[in-house]
Amino acid sequence: MDNKGNDALQELEMLTMNAKEVQEFILMKILERNQATEYLSKFMDGSTNISAFKRHVPVVTYDKVQPYILRIATGLGEGKAMYLLFVKAETLTNSGTPVRSVLTSYYKSPHFLHRKHDLYNNYTSPNEVILCPDSQQSMYCQLLCGLVERHLVLRIGAVFASAFLRSISFLEQHWCDLVNDIRIGQLNSGITNPACRLAMLNFLASPNPELADQLEAICSCGSWKGILGRLWPNVKYIEAVLTGTMAQYIPMLEFYGGGGIPLVCTMYASSESYFGVNMRPLCSPADVSYTILPNMAYFEFIPLEDGLRMSDQEEVIENDTLVSLVDVKVGCYYELVVTTFSGLYRYRVGDVLQVTGFYNKTPQFKFICRRNVILSIDSDKTNEEDLHNSVTTAKKILENQNYLLLEYTSYTVTSTVPGHYVLFWEIKFAHDESPPPFDARLIESCCSAVEDSLDCVYRRCKAHDKSIGPLEIRLVEAGAFDALMDLLVSHGSSINQYKTPICIESGLALKVLNSRVIACFFSPRDPACSMVW
Ligand code: AMP
C-alpha cells in the first residue's frame, strides 16, 4: 500500500479510537462557527456550551428549517438599513485647502456615493439627504424616509450611539409633522434644501393616510419604551459605537428598543485611521473587543506600566519603550500610536486600550478610555473610566427608583476652596405615570455612591486631607444635553461624530447647562477611606 493509503488508514484508526473526543470537538467547532446565526442564537443565546446545546436545541424535521432555506434561496435583497448619517459643512484654510471631517469625506467619495446596493449598503436615506449640510433638515428627511419604508428596514443605527439617540429624541418632538407629511403626500415647507426636496419626491409621491394612521397610533400611545420595534417591526439589530463614552447610552437604547433588539457595535476608527473590527458583533456591548486590522496603518503601543495611571501628553516617550502590534501582552494596558499613509508619524491617538486576546496573530483590544485625566482638584486624577464606573455604580440607585440617567457630564469647581467635582445629570422617570414626589435623599445617596467608588486618592483627599469638597450633582431639565449638543455643533463639532464631552470646562457649554439646572445636591458624608495604601 502506498503512503497515502497508510495515512488514510491511520487517520481512520485515530478517529474511530477517539470517537467520543472527536465528536465533542466537532460539535464544539460547529457551535463556534455558527454561534452568531439567527437559528442557533434563538436557542443558545450566543453560547457554545455543549450541554446547553443538548438542553435547548430541539430535534427538528425539514418543515422547521424550510423557512430558513427559502429565505437563503430567495435572498434578503429587499431589506434596507436606516442609518442616520450626517455631513458637516466644510471650511477652507487660508491657502484654500478644504477641511472636512473624515466621515464627510467618505460620504462625498465615490466609494460611498456609487456603492453597490446590496443588503448591507442599501440605505433608506438617499445620498442627497445624507449630504445636506443642514443637520436638522437632513435628520427630518432621513427619519421620514425610514418611516415611509418602515417594513423594509432590517437594521437601524448611526455611527455613534449619541447621534442615533439624538435622532430618536428629534422624532419624539417632530413625529406629528412627519406623519402629516405622509398623510398629505407633501414635504414640510421647513425643508428648504433644494436637493433634499427633490430627493424626497419619490418618498411622498401620493398621500398615504393608511400609513399615517398606523404611525400616529404607534407614536401617540403613551410610553416610547420599545418604540423602535413597533415603528420598524422587521428590525434585526441596532448598530452604533457603544463602547468608551458611548456606553452611557446603552440603557436608553435598551429603553427605546424594549430590550428585544440586539445592540451591535462593529468598528473602532478615528479621523487618523481605521483601527479595528469586532469579530463577535452579537456579543454584549460590555464584552466588545476590537481586532486591529494590521493593514490600516503602522501600529505601536506605549505600555502603561502603572495600569491606567498614564503619562500626560507633554511627557517625552523614549523611542525604545514602544511595543509593536504583535508583541503586546494579554491583560496589559497600552496607549495607541499610529503611523499613517496620510503622513502622521508615531502619533499618539489618545486612546487607552487593554489587550484581551489574539485572533490568529493579531491582538484584540478592549477600548478603555481616552488618555486624559479629566477631573483633578488635588493629587487625585480621575480619568474617563474611573468616572464612568462610579457613575455606573451610582445610577443603579436611580434605576431602583425607576429613574433613568439619560446623559451626564462633569466639571471641576476650583473657584471655591476646597474645589469639588460637579456632575450634570439629566434624568427621566421610566414609567408613563407621573413620578412620585422627588426625594432629595435619592440624589444625595447617588453623590455618596459616586464618591465611594472613586479611587483611594480621591477618597483620601476628601475624607482625610479635606482638600476636596463634597461632590455635587446638578439635575438639569429635559433637553439640556440636546441644547449642549446644538451649541457644540454650532461651534464646529460634526453631528455625525458628536460625543457628549465627558467633562466640560468653563465657557458657553457650562452656561448652557447651568442655565437649565433644576436642583443641586451634595454628598452628605465622607467616603470610606483607609489610610493604608
Ligand atoms: P473622531 O476622529 O472624532 O471620529 O474620534 C475618534 C475617537 O473616537 C477615537 O480615537 C476614540 O477615542 C473614539 N472612538 C472611535 N470608535 C470607538 C469605539 N468603537 N469605541 C470607543 N471609542 C471609539
UniProtKB/TrEMBL annotation:
GO molecular function: acid-amino acid ligase activity
Pfam families hit by this protein: GH3, GH3_C, GH3_M
Keyword Ligase attributed: yes
Family, similarity comment: Belongs to the IAA-amido conjugating enzyme family.
Keyword Lipid metabolism: no
Residue ranges of domain GH3 C-terminal in the record: 385-506
GO CC list: cytoplasm
Protein name: Indole-3-acetic acid-amido synthetase GH3.9
Keywords: Ligase
InterPro entries from the UniProt entry: GH3 (IPR004993), GH3_C (IPR055378), GH3_M (IPR055377)
Source taxonomy: Eukaryota, Viridiplantae, Streptophyta, Embryophyta, Tracheophyta
Coiled-coil ranges from the UniProt annotation: none
Domain GH3 middle, chain residue ranges per copy: 290-370
Recorded superkingdom: Eukaryota
